Amino acid sequence: DAAERAAGLVAAAVARTDNAYLLAKGLDDTRALTLAAGVRCGGVAFQAGDLLVPLTDSEGGVVNVQLINAAGDKRTLPDGRVKGSFHLCGVPDGKTLWLTEGVATGLTVHRLTGQAAQALLQFVLVDRKSAHDAKSVRCDERPAFYAKNPRCGTALVARELACLLYTSDAA
């Protein structure tokens, strides 16, 4: 069962601040779970130290993981749940919950705002129990200027967008 395998990978994971993928996204010193040992998933080899992102349901149970290697290759466990699952970056305050596409964007928004971000692998209707009736702010990785600047990294795009939204919301 994918959920059991995911839980096992999370239990064995090592928290580190030097993950190559997050460093490449501009997220220096970000503490994140990494693989304790190499695994193969979906035809891609993942090494010890590669990013391990627990995906949970609205009750907080681990239903799958996303693996991300230094090159940015991403895979979830075969036959594991993805739709409706998410990775929560930070602790919800009941006021604002940022909805982001991807963990790097979620971590960036959390770092910039101090507010929780629900990182989704695909945008779907959000379960209101997980949002705690907070005002939801959608933060898409691909705003209009991204199309004009395709070499911008996810973290840079998220920083720009988060600053604009956070500043206008706080005013």
Summarize this structure briefly:
This protein has 171 residues and is of the alpha+beta class.
Structure description:
Helices cover about 30% and strands about 25% of the residues. By secondary structure, the protein is of the alpha+beta class. A four-stranded mixed sheet has the order 8-10-9-11, with helices on one face. α3 packs parallel to α6. It is globular. It starts with a helix and ends with a helix. The model is unreliable at about 125-130, about 145-150 and about 165-170 (pLDDT under 50).
How many DSSP-defined strands? 11
Structural class, by secondary structure, is alpha+beta
Helix content: 25-40%
What is the makeup of the main sheet?
4 strands, mixed
How much of the polypeptide forms β-strand, as a percent range? 25-35%
Distance between the termini: 48 Å
Summarize model confidence as the mean pLDDT: 80
Shape: globular
Q: Order of strands across the widest beta sheet?
A: 8-10-9-11
Whole-number radius of gyration?
16 Å
How many H/I helical runs?
Answer: 6
